[in-house]
Amino acid sequence: MATRFEVVLYGKNLVSLRAAGEEALNEIQRLDHQLNLYNPTSEIAHINARAARESVRVEPGLFRLLEHARRLHQETHGAFDITVGPLLRCWGFMGGERKIPSAKALAQARTQVGMGLVHLDSTKRTVRFGGEGVMLDLGAIGKGYAIEQAIKLLRECGVTSAILHGGTSTIYAIGEPPDAPGWKVAIEYPAKEPGASPRLISMVVLKNEALSVSAGWGKSFQVRDKTYGHILDPRTGKPVSKAVLSAVILTSATETDALSTALLTLGARGHDHIASLRRGMRTLVMWSEGRTQFRFRNKGIEAPRSFKLRAPHFPLHT
After folding, report:
1. Which of these, 34, 191, 223, 249, is most buried using a 10 Å CB contact count?
2. Which helix (H) or strand (E) element contains residue 287?
């Protein structure tokens, strides 16, 4: 998953807390070995290597995750898609040179993308691809899933107060910390000017909930005055441009991870649809207007109506 995981635990028995924390982190490591696209010995790599030619039997937990990903793909009208790998490779985000692909190369990559090319047999618990070049990439759901499984282990160990995050982009809070009604977590816009501090967008309180934040300024490259980020719209094959940041809060880290990606892809116009998918979900989407102005649409997450930067940013391509 190529990210750092950290856990904070509260309780009276330090020995049992340490053991629980180690068990949770070991579970994340185990799932990384299973789900990591770039690990040639992982189950996902095994599926990608064989499923275009034969049906591949899948471990029960992973098969349930693939079925879950298919449902999320349907619910988000294709904005979330675990077959986006050929597009990432086309744009150079899989270890190649990052560049705008030719129309021909992009069109070819798009023929290898789509959940309609992934055939899941629930009776035999197998997966089969509809053609060569199709691949599964769980980068937009695997981290949340691993965190959710680790949280289950912590609860089974009796932990009642903890917070666990992966790369600070997906966070799960159990219970509450001492002397507070919940865990306070900041959602920030990163500083662009040297020596400047991040810009606070919102402060949320989590209790038995997960928060995932997706943003378009992570892995990216610039061409002239436009930024092209690594989160791609699987429906068009191009980097997302309708929003620069999204946040989703739910009780499932698996779903917050996936739905924050879908919300970033759909932007402000898709906000109300995503926000309606789950009862009690809290959401926020942020987009730019010009080079210094940002606006927000939100549900349950407090945010300013807009804010300005002191220095221009590189806008996402349009």
Report:
1. 249
2. strand 282-289
Asked if 187 and 213 count as a contact pair (C-beta separation under 8 A), the reply is yes
Pairing outcome for strands 282-289 and 220-223: unpaired
Blockwise average pLDDT, block size 10, the chain, 318 residues: 90 97 98 95 98 98 98 98 97 91 97 98 98 97 98 98 95 96 92 70 97 86 85 95 94 98 97 98 92 89 82 54
CA atoms within 13 A of residue 197's CA, in its CB half-sphere: 3
Helix (H, G, I), strand (E, B) or coil at 17: helix
Q: 267, 266, 234: which is closest to 139 by C-alpha?
A: 234
Q: Which position has the token pair 């009208």? A: 77
Q: Which candidate, 203, 199, 180, 181, places its Cα nearest to that of 189?
A: 199
d(CA 26, CA 34) in angstroms, rounded, equals 13
Among 277, 303, 292, 290, which Cα is nearest to 80's? 277
DSSP 168-199: TTEEEEES--TTSSSEEEEEEEPP-STTPPPE
CA–chain centroid gap for 40, Å, is 22
Helix %, strand %, coil % for the chain, to 5? 30, 25, 40
Q: How many degrees, rounded to 5, is the angle at CA 313 between CA 169 and CA 190? A: 30
Pick from 191, 137, 180, 197: nearest CA to 8: 180
